């Protein structure tokens, strides 16, 4: 579709329960790509052997992430639109965590033949909406058949200034956090016990709201390290501590614990701070700043960087898991 | 790993039959990324939230493709190294088909917990080798657990001149082909009947040899359209005919039919040209050139472009399937 054109309704000619097998590969791709409006930087969007993009920067940021049904999402817990939002958010957040901005994404889908077209198009709509929030276009993709639903996303973007790595934290820096943290983990805990409230926590799991402005702002302000919290706050701070060769201490009392988190923890007999310390699905950002820097908008100091190694909470190693791993 | 360093043997500390679950996510990723030497254009390779690349061109080509076990490859027909080569080749070929050159790839893997680490590392080795053939680096990736093995690749590159699309063919142009065509389809036919020879055809299926120099050469020579043959020669020419608004005629006698193809067809009682006309796994290239152009090295004229629509063989519609679809 040429840049700027409005997508037509792609599902108009199919019954509501048509599956991918009913519709066929090429028509599914056509219906899906019709959802993806192309930004001005896109010379050739979906449909040729490759997409062709213009960049005003000679630096390219690229990251890729997979999501697997029943591992990263459950179709009875999330709508297709939620899954689309989450798949895009997870990748957009990776560029946010370099201080960058995304301009383009590709969307690869391996899907069972019996998947309804309507479900896939809803996923596409959610994906496109989340990309639009970050100002990025869906420029290409792939669709293939599989037994299990897998969503494979790659995101491209740029930094206006030098990207902020995990390896630059220095003793004396301030540790800061941007975005909601622990909400999605609490929402997931609620859903996995068969409940649907507190609604704010469940919605935070279904549709994270990564702080897309916070990454570039941190870079502009001179952040020394930056990471997105996708494995769990303590686990990801562990990556920063290891890459930077420093010790990081989180101050418990500096962490925001909203009423919804308290309610979930009370219902389950746990500590609400555990969600904050080990949750990953919010795609918040953690950064370190030199002590003299005024923290930019959206950032809150939550700890300190010192000499040494490892991550502590109020000076003590945290008991229990720091996050989760895939194998 | 810094650019230019030689990767250490990453599997040294694990028993030969260790599975991904035995080794754990982070050590698997470490072992895998140790295989990927980084080119000079890579500022930050695998290990941070995103890779950071330098490009000397303001145009970016990007394409993505998925491969699913038992659909795109079978582990009893192909070695892990073959699968790695094929996954890279399929994506590198997409940029070749724009007249471009790849510089960077990402490798996403969804894999069962019981997959042997050794198998995955062999895949990584094959992938890296194929990327090196095209002068490209593996700059990032993702690893997650799934029931089914899925390999999701994204390739980035540039064109020195304007990319060649599917939509530029004009009546009067010459149709030309570069690379082996039909060999892999014959090899697949052999394997699916439980045989292992002719070896050249089977090897062509296991490890395609896309003509990576042919795409940029065609662009330099002024090709009006360019496509890689991944769905089948007639099917992909159909995409060109539709995108360009032209008719394409393939001349049967111009198509190379090597002895191995004849042998496979004879053993199966079919026409060897069917492999050439409908095979897709060789990742050959088809292009159209203005009639006055001397075809560049590696290209052979196989037909003509006329006014009208659709694809014919010696003036007649081909009977039977033009290629294959995923749903």
Automatic annotation (TrEMBL), chains A, B:
Gene3D superfamilies: PurM-like C-terminal domain (3.90.650.10), PurM-like, N-terminal domain (3.30.1330.10)
Reaction(s) catalysed (UniProt annotation): thiamine phosphate + ATP = thiamine diphosphate + ADP
Residues involved in ATP binding: 141-142, 166, 230
Highest taxon of source: Bacteria
Annotated Pfam families: AIRS (PF00586)
Residues annotated for Mg(2+) 1 binding in this entry: 64-65, 142
Coiled coil ranges: none
Known EC number: 2.7.4.16
Domain PurM-like N-terminal: 47-158
Binding site for Mg(2+) 2: 65, 94
GO molecular function: kinase activity
Entry annotated with the keyword Nucleus: no
Binding site for Mg(2+) 5: 231
Binding site for Mg(2+) 3: 49, 94, 228
Broad enzyme group: transferase
CDD domains: ThiL
This protein's record includes keyword RNA-binding: no
Keyword annotations from UniProtKB, A to Z: ATP-binding, Kinase, Magnesium, Metal-binding, Nucleotide-binding, Thiamine biosynthesis, Transferase
NCBIfam families tied to this protein: PRK05731.1-4, thiL
Miscellaneous remark of the record: Reaction mechanism of ThiL seems to utilize a direct, inline transfer of the gamma-phosphate of ATP to TMP rather than a phosphorylated enzyme intermediate.
Job of this protein: Catalyzes the ATP-dependent phosphorylation of thiamine-monophosphate (TMP) to form thiamine-pyrophosphate (TPP), the active form of vitamin B1.
Family: Belongs to the thiamine-monophosphate kinase family.
The protein's name in its UniProt record: Thiamine-monophosphate kinase
Organism: Nocardioides lentus
Name of the encoding gene: thiL
């Amino acid at each position: 579709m040429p840049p700027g054109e409005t997508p037509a309704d792609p599902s108009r000619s199919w019954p509501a329960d048509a599956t991918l097998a009913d519709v066929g590969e090429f028509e599914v791709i056509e219906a899906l790509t019709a959802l993806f409006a192309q930004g001005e930087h896109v010379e050739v969007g979906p449909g040729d052997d490759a997409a062709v993009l213009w960049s005003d920067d000679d630096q390219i940021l690229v990251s890729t992430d997979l999501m697997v049904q029943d591992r990263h999402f459950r179709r009875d817990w999330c709508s297709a639109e939620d899954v689309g939002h989450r798949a895009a958010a997870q990748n957009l957040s990776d560029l946010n965590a370099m201080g960058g901005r995304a301009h383009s994404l590709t969307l690869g889908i391996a899907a069972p033949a019996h998947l309804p077209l309507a479900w896939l198009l809803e996923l596409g709509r959610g994906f496109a909406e989340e990309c639009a929030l970050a100002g990025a276009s869906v420029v290409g993709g792939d669709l293939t058949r599989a037994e299990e639903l897998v969503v494979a996303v790659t995101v491209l973007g740029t930094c206006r200034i030098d990207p902020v790595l995990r390896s630059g934290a220095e003793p004396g820096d301030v540790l800061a956090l941007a975005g909601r943290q622990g909400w999605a983990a609490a929402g997931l805990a609620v859903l996995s016990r068969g409940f649907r409230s507190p609604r704010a926590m469940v919605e935070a799991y279904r549709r994270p709201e990564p702080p897309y402005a916070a990454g570039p702002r941190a870079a502009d302000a001179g952040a020394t390290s930056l990471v997105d919290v996708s494995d769990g706050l303590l686990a990801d701070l562990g990556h920063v501590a290891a890459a930077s060769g420093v010790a990081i201490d989180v101050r418990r009392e500096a962490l925001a614990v909203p009423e919804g988190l308290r309610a979930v923890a009370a219902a389950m007999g746990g500590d609400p701070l555990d969600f904050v310390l080990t949750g990953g699905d919010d795609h918040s950002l953690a950064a370190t700043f030199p002590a003299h820097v005024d923290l930019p908008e959206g950032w809150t100091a939550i700890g300190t960087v010192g000499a040494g190694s490892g991550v502590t909470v109020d000076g003590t190693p945290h008991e229990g898991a720091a996050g989760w791993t895939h194998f």
